[in-house]
Write a structure and sequence with these properties.
The complex is a heterodimer of chains A (about 400) and B (about 450). Chain A is an alpha/beta fold. Chain A is built from eleven helices and twelve strands. In chain B, the strands form three sheets. In chain B, strands 1-2 form a two-stranded antiparallel sheet. In chain B, α4 packs across α5. In chain B, β1 and β2 form a beta hairpin. Classes of the chains: A alpha/beta (about 400), B mainly alpha (about 450).
Chain lengths: ~400, ~450
């Protein structure tokens, strides 16, 4: 089965023709004219990594020249000698050797002080704000990637989340991303006779838009599962990835990219960063998982000559307080750093300074709105119409 | 049974045909629209600490955990009440509808339960009373910051959502109306300990307000009164009822008829529901089986069809979270967007596997996301058996002969019958599970 792109509008028009016998026919995979929609530059891949729970940015990138830092964190502050040197004022968490290597090669950028006005300190709410690209007091029911798909979707799995369930970020008004933690397992769950029965017994419900929609979703799920399963089985011989669940997800992403999947956006989560007590060991372990994972990702994509067409964007829903709490941990905070990794960055190293630690409320004040990063990626990398995706106008940054 | 009754029961009764087989259509509608509730949702007992401020950090954490668990408990009780055959299924469905309409979240399970009681008591009653009591409920006052709404320091959150989401809809009020209404609601407080409403005249702005073209030293009650005098309010609510009970695409003509009935009855919800269910257009072919069951509706129809209760808070939370509708935890004040938005590849497959998950303990691998936790829950062990004997006992003698009509389970035209006499129990069981796992079963 050779994957070919199809046009969504055409697809919808044709979906009324779906009947039991045509499920596996190439109707859905045949090429259509692209007269109405220009193709986006789908060679360029975007990988979004969400560090869930609120990663402590100040122990990720350590401002080792800043006395306030050590005063605020007498127990958990990381000594200069232990930091990995990537800058004359800042060093990386000692567990991030993989990331250090990427910095040394000039393929990494840290943007400091990323946040939004009136920060919300609830995991759930702040995650929603990041995923929907809303104002702090605005409630949106669609995600920014979902709205990108509303404008640009070309296939059911154009945006893929490596998980069992789909995040709000990937849900648009009319289009959704695709969620799977394991294409093999998904394919197997679809061979369940009960589901096969539904696939085979598509009754004539053409007048009923909603039920047609459910059948269409099922058929597309079936197709995407087949497609991704096939891509997952292309022999790529990747040996760099460590044995963690996160690295395994990244390996899966690398597998799809290398095997030429038409997915353009990947969404991967690493969770557990809510370090209210005994933070050091736990955060270190998580950062090692993160950094080793992306290091292997870069290595494999580079080996296949695909790294220059890949952009990796990492964020967390918020940072943590400047001062440590009473149990060698940190509580929920505000502005935080974001990582941008890629082979063709216009800016490398440290983009800007960490905001002042002399803060009245023990929190960093953001200097860059996260939607500026979104706008930059949407416009420069995905070549999308940012205005239709992000509400409000945000100055772009110049890292792409 | 004719197609009209089948449609009616799928749309208003979670597809539950019990008790209704020997009653005329209009008697059935009258019975369903009767606002009297026969059961209440139980509330767990909890001894709150007398002074929250004197608790240690650890005790506070324990308290939060307890409250979280107790909210899940109320969630479970409510789901199982909806399943309870003694309740009026339309009243239960209306309650679920208003719960999404007056979307609200509370850290206190007792406040959440109290609001649920207000809704169930008025779900088919007087809309004005419903709005007023919700406006005075502890969870709403806290959720939309009326607790912070004071004379000279107004907080507009509640006043705005009252008009935008609860009564009028966008475009039917001005920014000035929001400001003036917020002034009128100053001094409406709740007692954070017991949730009692109190009016504090010293915090109330008793000055003259100009609201929707009227002038006076209006109170919050006056504002609600004036809002409900607007015909736009009746059409806004009727549109929402129409898209939920009739067809996801609004028909302005039908909504206009409904709004007239709603206004003429002084906002009596039962009257407008009777009007809908007795209107010929309600039974138009294009309306049959067109609504996608919400996750909770799906859970309740499974419970009612297969006669089981959900066994634990865990069992309902897993399903609610994976499918995207956690009771007492709407995504925001606008409620669940619903309709096609319930469906993505992951939720659809989970829905189609749900009967096997519950009755055959299969495919427990899928787990909801955890935002702040380190580890996901371990798989749940379901121990529910589909009680075939009870199920078959509830089917009438003559159906046994001709076979069980699939239309009792799905609201769409279908030629399939389950032959009940010539098959083994195992075969019948599998046939049932097949139907419960169909795409058609997702519809009502």
């Amino acid at each position: 089965m050779t994957p070919k792109k199809y046009n969504r509008r055409q697809f919808l028009k044709n979906s009324s023709l779906i009947s039991a016998g045509s499920i596996m026919t190439p109707l859905f995979l045949s090429p259509f004219s692209h007269a109405h929609q220009p193709l986006t530059s789908s060679q360029k891949k975007l990988i979004i990594i969400q560090l869930s729970g609120g990663n402590d940015g100040l122990n990720t990138l350590i401002p080792f020249r800043n006395d306030f830092y050590y005063k605020a964190r007498p127990h958990i502050g990381i000594e200069k000698n232990n930091c990995l040197p990537i800058h004359d004022a800042y060093g990386l968490n000692p567990e991030m050797k993989g990331m250090e290597a990427i910095f040394k090669e000039g393929d990494a950028l840290i943007i400091n002080g990323v946040g939004y006005p009136d920060p919300d300190l609830s995991h759930f709410r702040s995650t929603d704000i990041w995923q929907t690209a809303s104002q702090s007091d605005q409630f949106l029911s669609t995600g920014w990637i979902g709205r990108f798909l509303d404008q640009n979707s070309q296939s059911n799995h154009m945006a893929l989340e490596m998980d069992d369930t789909l995040s709000l970020a990937l849900k648009g008004h009319n289009n959704r991303g695709f969620a799977t933690s394991n294409p093999q397992m998904m394919k197997r769950s679809l061979t369940n006779p009960l589901i096969q029965h539904s696939l085979a017994h598509h009754h004539d419900h053409d007048h009923n838009e909603n039920i047609s929609y459910l059948y269409k979703t099922l058929i597309q799920t079936h197709q995407s599962a087949d497609y991704l399963f096939e891509k997952a089985n292309v022999d790529t011989q990747m040996s760099s990835f460590p044995n963690t669940k996160f690295a395994n997800n990244l390996k899966q992403v690398a597998q799809f990219i290398i095997s030429g999947s038409d997915t353009q956006i990947y969404f991967v989560e690493l969770t557990g960063f809510d370090t209210h007590f005994n933070q050091q060991a736990r955060q270190g372990k998580l950062l090692k998982t993160y950094s080793d994972g992306v290091h292997a990702l870069r290595k494999e994509l580079k080996r296949y000559g695909l790294w220059n067409d890949t952009l990796v964007f990492t964020y967390s829903e918020f940072g943590r307080r400047i001062s440590e709490n009473g149990s060698k941990g940190t509580d929920h905070g505000t502005a935080n750093l974001s990582f941008i990794l890629g082979g063709n960055l216009h800016k490398k190293g440290i983009y800007n300074e960490i905001p002042s630690l002399k803060s009245r409320d023990n929190n960093l004040t953001h200097s860059i709105d996260f939607r500026q990063i979104y706008a930059t990626i949407l416009d420069k990398w995905l070549e999308a119409d940012t205005q239709k995706i992000i509400d409000g106008s945000f100055d772009q940054l110049d890292f792409l | 049974m004719d197609i009209r009754s089948i449609h009616l029961i799928h749309r208003t009764c979670f597809g539950d045909f019990d008790h209704f087989s020997d009653i005329s259509e209009s008697d059935l509608i009258n019975k369903l629209c009767s606002p009297k509730q026969r059961l209440t949702v139980p509330v767990p007992f909890y001894k709150f600490p007398i002074n929250k401020n004197s608790l240690s950090k650890k005790e506070k954490k324990e308290l939060r955990k307890d409250l979280h668990q107790l909210t899940a408990q109320v969630n479970l009780y409510w789901i199982n009440t909806m399943i309870d055959k003694r309740t009026n299924p339309l009243l239960e469905k209306m309650t679920l509808f208003w719960h999404g309409h007056f979307a609200c979240e509370s850290k206190r399970f007792d406040f959440a339960h109290n609001q649920l009681c207000i809704i169930r008591e008025n779900a088919l009653g007087d809309f004005k009373k419903l709005v007023l009591e919700i406006a005075k409920s502890a969870s709403m006052i806290l959720y939309l910051n009326n607790q912070q709404n004071r004379k000279n320091k107004p907080n507009e959150n509640f006043a705005r959502e009252l008009m935008e989401l609860f009564t009028l809809g966008r475009g039917n009020y001005t920014e000035k109306d929001v400001k003036e209404a917020a002034r009128a609601f100053t001094g409406w407080f709740t007692n954070r300990q017991n949730g009692d409403f109190s009016f504090n005249p010293r915090q109330h702005d008793s000055g003259i307000k100009t609201f929707m073209g009227k002038k006076g030293n209006f109170t919050g009650e006056d504002i609600i009164e004036i809002i409900l005098q607007q015909e736009k309010c009746a059409s806004f609510i009727c549109k929402k009822l129409y898209t939920y009970f009739v067809h996801p695409k609004p028909n302005e003509d039908h909504i206009g008829q409904m709004a007239q009935v709603f206004l003429n009855s002084d906002y009596n919800i039962s009257s407008v529901m009777q009007f809908i269910l007795k209107a010929d257009w309600f039974y138009d072919e294009k309306n049959l089986g067109v609504q996608i069951k919400s996750p909770v509706e799906l859970m309740v129809s499974l419970g009612r069809h297969c006669q089981f209760n959900y066994p634990s808070t865990r069992s309902i939370l897993i399903i609610e979270r994976i499918l995207g509708q956690i009771l007492f935890k709407p995504p925001n004040v606008a409620g669940w967007p619903g309709n096609k938005r319930w469906i993505d590849n992951a939720t659809l497959i989970y829905r189609l596997n749900l009967a096997s998950i519950i009755f055959k303990n299969k495919d427990q691998r899928i787990q909801p996301k955890e935002v702040a936790e380190r580890k996901r829950l371990s798989p749940m062990k379901w121990d529910i058996s589909l009680d075939l004997k009870r199920l078959l006992d509830s089917i009438e003698e003559k159906q046994l002969e001709m076979g069980f009509d699939m239309r009792f389970l799905v609201p769409l035209k279908n030629e399939r019958y389950v032959k009940l006499t010539q098959q083994s129990d195992e075969q019948i069981l599998n046939e049932f599970i097949q139907i419960l796992s169909s795409i058609e079963y997702q519809m009502c």
